[in-house]
Design brief:
By secondary structure, the protein is of the alpha/beta class. β4, α8 and β5 form a beta-alpha-beta unit. The longest helix has 20 residues. The protein binds 2-deoxy-2-amino glucitol-6-phosphate. 2-deoxy-2-amino glucitol-6-phosphate (AGP) binds next to α5.
Length: 362
């Protein structure tokens, strides 16, 4: 059938979609650039963002994880306060809103019922909204005031990969453009930095054998797996754990490195895999301290660090990218590890049990 043709020589859509990520980032650089080669986003959207006193990002699952990274980018670069909310909680447990809120709905499919329920509610309250989606003409796109497209091409695998990195790239560009409109001097050439990210992603996509080896060694028979990170790495390990859970059925949790000792460390046993990310200089020593804490309890550590911050026993080193854009690179090995873990455990990678690609019920 048609879907077989699209998959080409790949055994699963997920692997194809992981491999498409450098291309999607390069495409986004082209799509969000004006004739002078500068980053450009619809002026109405930039104005709406800069008129808001607070942004409320609303999303589910992987899109929510992208929103967490987006909060960091927007707060750091554009200096606008951002809250990130899980859609299914927001509807029933509304936070106190600021005076001039702008709602940003992040949804690959644009059809997620939980997110739509919030959009309906915030529209009733008269608040403006922007949808960031991969599907033009989708419900969330039609019903919001503004749309930014992800241009990632159809994402077929239930486990979202290229949409996540596209969401972060769009949020980074949005943050940079909003900063510029506010007269904030950034000192970051975001277009150039995203180009460096695309190259790094390519190198990471070529590291399939290493990731397969890690999956085999750490995850072939384990019951559970912990992911730890600090600062923005914490947000990325949440996504790494979700990927692993949904396709390999291994109980996986992402934790803030410093939070483990407040309870979760009780779960560490002899041989428990702990995958740690270390891409942030200001927390490099502290995350390594957290790894030592779990190793002392018998954990089997797998440190994935960034070039320049790497240390002797690191299992894998990702190429250096701009410190604010590391999630775009560091998530790729986590996606591949999840993929190979699922493959080796005989799971249906593209169609995991109990899940649908877009969740159209509340
Ligand atoms: C991701 O791997 C999941 N399958 C899921 O969490 C997904 O991201 C979530 O359901 C949100 O979907 P959306 O982006 O289409 O709204």
């Amino acid at each position: 059938d048609a879907s077989d043709i699209e998959k080409g020589t790949y055994p699963y859509y997920m692997l194809k979609e992981i491999d498409e990520q450098p291309l999607v980032i390069r495409r986004l650089i082209e799509k969000y650039r004006n004739e002078q080669g500068e980053l450009a986003i619809d002026e109405d959207i930039v104005q709406a963002i800069n008129e808001a006193d607070r942004l409320y990002i609303v999303a589910c699952g992987t899109s929510y994880h992208a929103g967490l990274v987006g909060k960091q980018l927007i707060e750091n670069w554009a200096k606008i306060p951002v809250e990130v909310h899980i859609a299914s909680e927001f509807s029933y447990n509304m936070p106190l809103l600021s005076e001039k809120p702008l709602f940003i709905y992040i949804s690959q499919s644009g059809e997620t019922a939980d997110s739509r329920a919030v959009l309906v509610r915030t529209k009733e309250l008269g608040h403006k909204s922007l949808t960031i989606t991969n599907v033009p003409g989708s419900t969330l796109s039609r019903e919001a005031d503004y749309t930014l497209l992800l241009h990632a091409g159809p994402e077929i695998a239930v486990a979202s990969t290229k949409a996540y990195t596209a969401q972060i790239a769009v949020l980074a560009m949005l943050a940079a453009v909003a900063a510029k409109a506010k007269g904030i001097e950034l000192n970051v050439d975001v277009t150039k930095e995203l180009g460096i990210v695309a190259n790094a992603m390519e190198t990471l996509c070529d590291a399939k054998q290493e990731m397969e080896q890690i999956a085999r060694e750490y995850l072939a028979t384990t019951r559970n797996c912990f992911f730890i990170g600090r600062a923005v790495d914490y947000y990325v390990v949440l996504e790494g754990a979700l990927k692993l859970k949904e396709i390999s059925y291994i109980q996986a949790e992402g934790f803030a490195g410093g939070e483990l000792k407040h309870g979760t460390i009780a779960l560490i046993e002899n041989g428990t895999p702990v995958i740690a990310l270390a891409t942030q200089e200001h927390v490099n020593l502290s995350i390594r301290g957290n790894v030592k804490e779990v190793v002392a309890r018998g954990a089997n550590p797998c440190i994935i660090s960034m070039k320049g911050l790497d240390m002797e026993d690191d299992r894998f080193v990702i190429p250096a990218v701009h410190p604010m854009l590391t999630p775009l690179a560091s998530v790729v090995p986590l996606q591949l590890i999840a993929y190979y873990a699922a493959l080796h455990r005989g799971c249906d990678v593209d169609k995991p049990r109990n899940l649908a690609k877009s969740v159209t019920v509340e």
